[in-house]
Design a protein that fits this description.
GO terms for molecular function: acyltransferase activity. The chain contains 22 helices and 14 strands. It is an alpha/beta fold and 624 residues long. Helix 14 runs parallel beside helix 20 and helix 16 runs antiparallel to helix 18.
Length: 624
């Protein structure tokens, strides 16, 4: 969504107490069993956090409330002003995942803490992206003339959930998912002031904000309120029983985090392709990450698509502030403005991925100088009454990619196809059963029964395509045959899994595909019989991508639901582990094919990817 005449005129942050180094964490977040120190070393070694802040003392007593953290950030945003400085503010939007009370809303508690005059309030509850939701609420209100000035405030206080006395009631021995976040999250608050005109000196003009949730597709990743056995906190006999069962612990299933990166990456490509974001024009990139590690193959794809932002333009305060959830991007911008001192005309891209149930947010900011004639001319005056609604600008046009290399243009188009395909797969009946826990032995066996004959055909259509390459593309023949050799006996592994799970069909030849699978198989073989069917690289992109990005997320859920099936998941494990290398080989083959055939081959690859995605998804939809 594009905005006009919405400005961030000041920022503020608050961090309780002195910075706590890694060696001192145990004074506040004590180990509770022999597993704790090992997890702590591993997590701290990966996330790069050196110091953080806690709003508890070494006895576990709170030194602040969450509302007080937010109030201090608001005061910093108002340059130390109190109630009088809030006189021109008529909207307070606030976000947190760790408020002090269940009810009322956090914005109301913050308003009371500030002793602020009467105003409109909006409370946003969630995880990391809830702060961006509060920003969107406030920006829309200003954009449409409903309010003149707003404060958006965020605060997090997770350490109350992590102290030893709170973390292990009645001797509860927490699982890894509950341990993990104890050394990831910390306390603090951030606030931004929004106005319909720039403030004195430099301001940040909000040009674009994109917020999208994928909760209807993907499984629960980060939560508090559900015990390991699936029971919700309110469904226990009493709160003590819920506590003892571990329902009140904050958990994250780290096995699902690659799905968040996959979703965020492809949503970013979609925004770039539409023209909403131009990576080449970004001067500063503020990225909310819990870890600084990248998926190498995905990063390589973004580089080839010419959508990557050089790391020299990145900024993060993760190392010395820690992960502050919804407040991270707010405090990050405050630290960035003080440390980097951007100049007028600079463009800043904010990125916030949320793992709660998978949400991504992007915001594009432009640094403007109030003294600039252009800034003054475009700014709306602040009237005594609410201003008239500001007309929204025209939507952006798609990015002009005529000057892009063929590989870059192709990868962008494939990313959009994958984005839609992934969404469709995650909403199929089979995957829905895996996610909600209703999947049974018959479902898994039925899936394998229809998948085995498809996998069996994989090496056959690949070899057929290789044998139909003309001399022009002969250089790719060995690469395709090599890949077919890797796939040749995959179906034997899958058939063994099928039999171990209780499959009754004794012969591979007796297994039948459903109509979707038959259509996919017929399409792939028909294309492979044509000369130089290099468009099938698009089919491989979808098929290998399924193994690399979707299967690894389903495998732990299947093991959890159907662990008693024993040795029945060998193929799924192999598929997820080896498809990374397969994708790297695919990238090399694509570059070679495009160097020879150019745009015509790229068009074929896109067409085959689109048709394969539709047929593959249809096959999965028909497994019930």
């Amino acid at each position: 969504m594009r905005f006009d005449q919405v400005y961030i005129t000041s920022t503020g942050a608050y961090f309780p107490g002195e910075p706590v180094g890694n060696d001192d964490i145990d004074r506040y977040i004590a180990p509770i069993n022999a597993l704790s120190p090992r997890i702590k070393r591993r997590i701290l070694g990966e996330n790069g956090i050196v110091t953080r802040h806690y709003a508890i003392d070494d006895q576990g007593r709170s030194t602040h409330t969450c509302a007080a953290l937010a109030a201090n950030a608001v005061r910093a945003c108002l340059n130390g002003g109190g109630e009088a400085a809030l006189g021109d503010v008529d909207l307070l939007a606030a976000a947190t995942s760790s408020g002090d009370l269940i009810l009322p809303g956090f914005a109301n508690m913050l308003q009371a803490e500030l002793r602020a005059p009467a105003m409109t309030t909006a409370s946003h509850h969630g995880v990391c992206a809830s702060g961006m939701a509060a920003l969107q609420h406030a920006a829309l209100a200003l954009q449409h003339g409903q309010h003149r000035q707003a404060i958006v405030a965020t605060a997090e206080f997770p350490s109350r959930l992590f102290k030893r006395s709170r973390f292990a009631p009645a001797g509860y021995d927490a699982d890894f998912d509950a341990h993990f976040l104890r050394w990831m999250l910390s306390d603090g608050a951030g606030a931004w002031r929004l106005s319909t005109r720039p403030g004195e000196g430099l301001s940040l003009k909000l040009e674009h904000l994109h917020l999208k949730s994928f909760s209807g597709e993907l499984p629960l990743c980060m939560q508090a309120g559900q015990a390991p056995d699936g029971r919700l906190w309110g469904d226990h006999e009493d709160f003590t029983a819920a506590d003892a069962a571990g329902a009140m612990l904050l958990r994250q299933d780290i096995r699902l985090l690659p799905q968040l990166f996959d979703v965020a990456t492809h949503e970013y490509v979609k925004l770039a392709q539409s023209g909403a974001i131009d990576p080449a024009s970004i001067d500063h990139f503020l990225c909310h990450y819990s870890s600084e590690r990248f998926a190498p193959v995905v990063k390589q794809c973004l580089q080839l698509a010419q959508l990557d932002i050089p790391e020299s333009k990145w900024y993060s305060n993760l190392k010395f502030r820690g992960n502050l959830g919804s407040a991270s991007i707010f405090t990050m911008l405050d630290d960035f403005l003080r440390e980097r001192k951007p100049k007028a005309g600079d463009t800043i891209l904010l990125f916030v991925p949320e793992s709660g149930r998978f949400t991504v947010a992007f915001a594009l900011l432009k640094v403007v100088d109030a003294a600039s004639p252009a800034a003054v001319a475009t700014a709306a005056p602040i009237a005594a009454e609410a201003p008239s609604p500001v007309p929204l600008p025209e939507p952006p046009h798609a990015a002009d990619d005529k000057q892009l290399p063929e590989v870059a243009r192709l990868l962008r188009e494939l990313a959009l196809i994958w984005h839609d395909y992934r969404s469709r797969v995650w909403r199929t009946p089979l995957v829905t059963k895996i996610l909600d826990g209703s999947v049974g032995k018959a479902d898994y066996v039925g899936w394998m029964e229809q998948w085995v004959p498809q996998v069996r055909q994989g090496s056959l259509w690949m070899r057929k395509a290789a044998d139909h390459l003309t001399p022009k593309y002969a250089v790719l023949r060995d690469t395709v045959h090599h890949h077919a050799d890797d796939e040749q006996f995959d179906y034997d592994v899958l058939f063994e899994d099928y039999r171990n799970a209780g499959g009754k069909v004794a012969s591979l030849d007796e297994l039948k595909r459903n109509p979707g699978g038959e259509a996919l198989n017929a399409y792939l073989h028909a294309r492979a019989a044509q000369p130089d069917a290099l468009g099938l690289l698009g089919a491989m992109y979808i098929i290998e991508g399924t193994g690399q990005r979707i299967v690894p997320a389903l495998l732990p859920l299947l093991r959890e639901r159907l662990g008693w099936l024993g040795r029945s998941f060998n193929f799924l494990a192999y598929h997820g582990e080896n498809d990374v290398a397969h994708l790297q080989r695919w990238l090399a083959a694509v570059e070679t094919a495009l160097a020879i055939g150019g745009r015509d081959i790229a068009a074929d690859i896109v067409d085959d990817a689109r048709h394969t995605a539709a047929l593959y998804a249809r096959q999965l939809e028909m497994i019930r």
